[in-house]
Design goal:
alpha+beta; single chain; 23 strands; 5 domains; 883 residues; six-stranded mixed β-barrel; 52% helix
Length: 883
């Protein structure tokens, strides 16, 4: 019989048994037909049962058939204990799903190689040291003239590729009224050939498309954008669109697998770097530099060579910059170049969420360990209830390995059922977590395929889970002593200590998860409830562009038109909203002193902007229509304190010292209360300047973009968004609203990472708490089962309820107390490692200790109550009769 036929026979046991019976019957009939006595014929065949077993083993694969039988028996056991089985499946499903979700997120952002040729040879260039603001940091942005020098020097050792930061910009395919958003990225013409990316339609860039500034207004769109925006229409090649101040022609579509080099961002449109407006500027850093090393190239000599070229470039560029302080110049030139492996690409999301995902991964691992300990305890309780069955199996010749396999088969079934639920949970939760990372107007996009990487992780996780929670109960079951079990005796005390040791570890992990979750929630609440210095209620932000740039008086006309719209209370203008994350800074000079080491930050605003934002004016006056930049300025308290050191700064003069040595003199007209500028974490010295700018000849300059800040009468400002968008274009057709959002959305965007951490940590804390409660219940029920005979004897002798309950719950409560102490200690130690993720979270707060203690106390009460009730309901008469 063939090997595959024997495998098939394993799963058609009834038919095989029928064939064996027919074969035996035919042999007996043949003997009878030859005149032999039926009884003698049966005796001649030998022991019927043994012959059937031999024949069955010849027709199947014995070990596989035994596994099949164990699985069927395990399934019956799960059906017999449906409540316990459901609790175990739910516990493991949550843990497996959480682990798989964490893996998918971490893999997509940090581990998954880019779909390019030889990603292992990909590196990213960055600089580490002191910035122009004299604060430590790391930067990966470069100036294009510097890039050209480094690329020439690296020839033969590496190919350098310039790739700008992806920008969510306005593009127009028809009229300005049909403007839409797209992720646009400027890339070096040699990028596609270096990465060996093939076109899905048309052609891709070559180096000849990227040699002369503004000479190649071409674009390549991604396959994702082609499918989403154009329905994979091949006729899109040759179409044109308007972006910035130029018109671009689509020449091709990149292949499906390539979506850019920034994990978390799917690029829609690629444009040559030579079409960037800052491509010739030495003082503008606007792109990353990736290096594709040649096979066998030494990385450290390459880094040293590139560092020398960059240092020479910076020294030459900054030598004539008298606008920089000597300290700043010295610090910037001391920056160290780094050449780090980047097989997964490079993005701000990687840098911002690397530690956050590591923290979430650690919490998920602890939840998995809690779930495994929980299910191990439940399996131990079930095994204890089956002690007599196991003893009988041993008595009739079952070996230890056979019993281990029997229990592991049941554990494997639990794991497989849980993995199905976990897969559904991960399929739902992973995209949900991604949607929480960025605001709705600029959402993150991570590629989350269910490919062999996820499948391999899932299989490894299931195997590990089976071994974690199934091996210990299996070994216990296999070491049963038939005499002890059949007489109703207890297991050795060592096994009791091991069980309570597991519950102590489980409680410790749970306490730690709840403690850390409390820190994350506390950090988020402190940051979210932090006063910003202005009122965000009912503020609607209309980010507007004009094509071509329009005089500031036209912008004022649009603002006046919006003031007449019903439901509008106030309208002001600014270069951009507060807390948008962008800024404009320069050094300050007072009384002719050298430029300051610290930088001040600037924002263009219109008269009345302070009142619209409800920022109190402490001294002096607001801007008037006659005020213009650069003569007039309003400063905040931090600026007055840092640069003017004067209790009455109104009327004082200072100079804005730029890097190009130019200076602009300004007079302080007023002082306002501090309000956060670009980040809610740091209060900066801010100078507000008039929106009306005059050039050196005294002529008013034109503006191409700005923001109308509208305070509405309605509590829901978005209700007016459609109307106001139309009114802007109705006031002047050259103006178009490119984006509408509320100030509250920007404020909430400052706490995205903290909100994500707090939400996930709180969810995992609740899961850990539920699992710990279920685990405690399993151990207590296990104790009751093991002590049933003792409890019955004590009750028959008249023992009080306290004397009966104390032996059942005493050791478990000691284990809970020990686990809580260990968990608290681990939580206090862990705060040192997660301080960089937290904002002013204080582990010394009483609530940080009280909340985990209360949670564990509630879990203990919920677990103890049913176990005590079961113990006190023991009927000694029926129990002794059964014995």
């Amino acid at each position: 019989m063939s090997f595959w036929s024997r495998i098939a026979n394993v799963f058609r046991s009834e038919r095989v048994n029928c064939d064996i019976e027919e074969e035996f019957a035919s042999h007996i009939d043949e003997a009878i037909s030859q005149g032999r006595d039926p009884a003698e014929a049966r005796r001649a065949l030998g022991n019927a049962l043994r012959q059937r077993e031999k024949s069955h083993d010849l027709r199947v694969i014995p070990w596989l058939d035994s596994v099949r039988a164990d699985v069927i028996f395990g399934w019956r056991q799960l059906k017999r204990n449906r409540v316990t089985s459901a609790a175990a499946v739910l516990s493991l499903a949550l843990a497996i799903g959480a682990c798989t979700t964490a893996f998918r997120l971490i893999d997509a952002l940090l581990w998954r190689p880019l779909p390019v040729a030889h990603p292992e040879r990909l590196y990213v260039l960055s600089r580490k040291g002191m910035g122009f603001d004299n604060k430590p940091g790391e930067w990966d942005s470069w100036a294009y003239p510097d890039f050209q020098l480094m690329r020439t020097a690296a020839k033969g050792k590496a190919e350098l590729i310039a790739i700008s930061y992806a920008d969510r910009a306005d593009v127009t395919y028809k009229t300005d009224q049909e403007m839409e958003k797209a992720m646009v990225q400027h890339v070096f013409g040699w990028m596609f050939p270096s990465f060996e990316i093939q076109p899905a339609a048309g052609r891709l860039f070559t180096e000849s498309d990227d040699r002369t500034p503004e000479a190649a207004p071409y674009a390549v769109i991604s396959y994702d954008y082609w499918n989403r925006r154009f329905g994979r229409d091949p006729g899109v090649v040759g179409h044109t669109f308007h972006y910035g101040d130029g018109v671009y022609q689509i020449i091709g579509v990149s292949e499906k697998k390539f979506t850019g080099t920034e994990p978390g961002i799917v690029v829609d449109i690629f444009i040559p770097t030579m079409m960037h407006r800052s491509v010739t500027r030495q003082d503008s850093t606007w792109f990353r530099t990736l290096a594709v090393a040649e096979p066998g190239a030494a990385i450290e000599p390459l880094r040293e060579m590139l560092a020398a070229v960059n240092h020479a470039f910076e020294a030459n560029r900054l030598s004539g910059e008298t606008g920089l302080s000597p300290v700043t110049l010295q610090n910037v030139l001391k920056n160290q170049m780094r050449l780090e492996p980047a097989p997964t690409g490079a993005s701000e999301m990687q840098r911002g969420y690397r530690q956050a995902l590591a923290a979430i991964g650690a919490l998920v691992l602890m939840v998995l360990l809690i779930a495994c300990a929980n299910v191990a305890n439940l399996m131990a309780a079930k095994t204890a209830a089956r002690a007599r069955e196991m003893a009988l199996r041993v008595s009739i010749g079952a070996g230890r390995l056979r019993l281990v396999r029997l229990v592991l088969a049941e554990s494997a079934l639990l794991a497989l059922l849980s993995s199905a639920g976990g897969a559904l949970f991960s399929w739902w939760s992973a995209p949900l977590v991604v949607s929480m990372i960025n605001p709705r107007d600029n959402p993150a996009r991570l590629i989350l395929p269910a490919d062999w990487r996820v499948l391999g992780f899932g299989m490894t996780l299931i195997t590990g889970v089976v071994l974690l929670f199934g091996l210990l109960p299996a070994l216990r079951a296999s070491s049963v002593r038939p005499v002890n079990a059949l007489q109703g005796g207890e297991e050795p005390h060592a096994r009791q200590r091991l069980m309570h040791g597991m519950i102590a570890a489980q409680v410790s992990f749970c306490f730690l998860v709840v403690f850390v979750a409390g820190l994350f929630v506390s950090s988020f609440e402190r940051l979210a409830n932090k006063p910003t210095g202005f009122s965000a209620e009912r503020l609607l932000l209309l980010e507007t562009t004009s094509r071509p740039a329009q005089p500031s008086t036209y912008w004022d006309q649009v603002a006046d038109h919006l003031r007449g719209v019903p439901g509008v209370e106030r309208v002001s203008q600014a270069g951009w909203p507060l807390l948008k994350g962008i800024g404009w800074n320069d050094s300050i000079s007072v009384n002719g002193a050298p430029p300051s080491v610290d930088l001040a930050y600037f924002l263009n605003v219109s008269p009345g902007w302070l009142e619209t934002m409800k920022i109190p004016l402490l001294e002096g006056r607001d801007f008037r229509e006659s005020d213009s930049y650069p003569q007039a300025a309003i400063v905040n308290e931090t600026f007055a304190r840092k640069f003017l050191q004067d209790a009455h700064p109104v009327g004082r003069w200072f100079e804005k010292a730029s890097d190009d040595a130019s200076r602009e003199r300004m007079q302080v007209l007023g002082v306002v209360r501090d309000a956060y500028y670009s980040s809610i974490r740091t209060m900066l010295p801010v100078v507000f300047v008039p929106l009306h700018h005059r050039d050196p000849t005294g002529r008013m300059t034109s503006l191409s973009e700005g923001t109308f800040i509208v305070r509405t009468a309605s509590s829901n400002p978005l209700a007016l968004s459609s109307m106001l968008r139309e009114e802007v274009s109705r006031a002047r057709p050259e103006f178009h609203v490119s984006n509408v959002r509320t100030q509250q959305e920007l404020n909430e965007g400052q706490t995205i990472r903290e909100r994500l951490l707090a939400t996930l940590a709180l969810f995992f804390a609740v899961v850990a708490w539920l699992l710990a409660g279920i685990g405690l219940y399993g151990v207590l029920i296990y104790s009751v089962i093991q002590r049933q005979r003792e409890i019955g004897i004590r009750m028959a002798l008249g023992a009080q309820a306290g004397d009966i309950v104390r032996p059942v719950v005493g050791a478990t409560l000691y284990a809970v107390a020990l686990g809580s102490i260990l968990g608290l200690g681990a939580g206090l130690v862990s705060t040192r490692f997660i301080e960089s993720l937290l904002y002013q979270a204080k582990s010394s707060d009483a609530s940080m200790v009280a909340i985990p203690c209360l949670a564990m106390g509630l879990a203990v009460m919920m677990a103890v109550a049913p176990a005590v009730v079961r113990a006190l309901r023991t009927n000694p008469v029926s129990l002794l009769r059964a014995e």
